[in-house]
Amino acid sequence: MRRVLILGGTAEARALAAELAADPGVRVVSSLAGRVTNPRLPVGEVREGGFGGPEGLAAWLVAEGVDAVVDATHPFAARMTASAAVASASTGVPLLVLRRPGWQEGPGDAWQRVGSLGDAADLLTEPVRVFLTTGRRSLPVFSGLAGVWLLARSVDPPEPPVPANVYVLLDRGPYTVEGELALIREHRLDVLVTKDSGGQLTTAKLTAARRLGLPVIMVNRPPLPEGVRLVDTVAAAVEWVHG
């Protein structure tokens, strides 16, 4: 029986776990970082918490007799992906990265792509009301900007204290275009700052921004480690595991 470790709590990771668990010749273990309260659990065996860096992950792969690793973490989970690449290289356990395709600018969009959260913050140089959907851990990058008011949406609350110029909206997708339009209008938001996460779960904000002529600051994904194999569909990941 082949033992496969799936890293990540994304929708793609859950779909992959369900596909592989249906095969009696595959034993699936899904690893969740444990950073989200009440995560949506995948089918099959689940492991929560970190491994202790690349060395800890490598030791776990060997001890558990893992035959293959699929990194289906969030596109911005660069540290986990880097650890997986190092652990794979040191143990010889094959690694595949599964990432949903990124978003592409279309007619009517007004996007400005940047390389980091810091670069996005540097563009907010005038008094402005910002729709921030880059995750609660990014708040410190933006909270000290003069004249900037932030509506920060996240699944879980950020670590206190929350700055006075930040309004935290706790919510979990999927979102609707009508809901995003109403939110932008209610809070008189001027610009959307988001990360190129891809997928359909949160695209409604981009459609709403297009309809209202709202500019979008889009943070690009971090690059993958050199030599890592990448696929962008669950079907391709299943084929790789079976191959």
Can you give a write-up of this model?
With 243 residues, this protein is α/β, with parallel strands linked by helices. The chain is 31% helix and 24% strand. It contains eight helices and twelve strands. The protein has helices spanning 11-21, 53-64, 78-91, 117-122, 139-142, 177-186, 204-212, 234-242; strands spanning 2-7, 26-32, 45-48, 68-71, 95-98, 111-114, 128-133, 148-154, 166-170, 191-195, 216-219, 229-231. The strands form two sheets. A six-stranded parallel β-sheet has the order 3-2-1-4-5-12, sandwiched between helices. Strands 6-11-10-7-8-9 form a six-stranded parallel β-sheet. Helix 1 (11-21) crosses helix 8 (234-242), helix 2 (53-64) crosses helix 3 (78-91) and helix 6 packs across helix 7 (204-212). The chain starts with a strand and ends with a helix. 35% of the residues are buried.
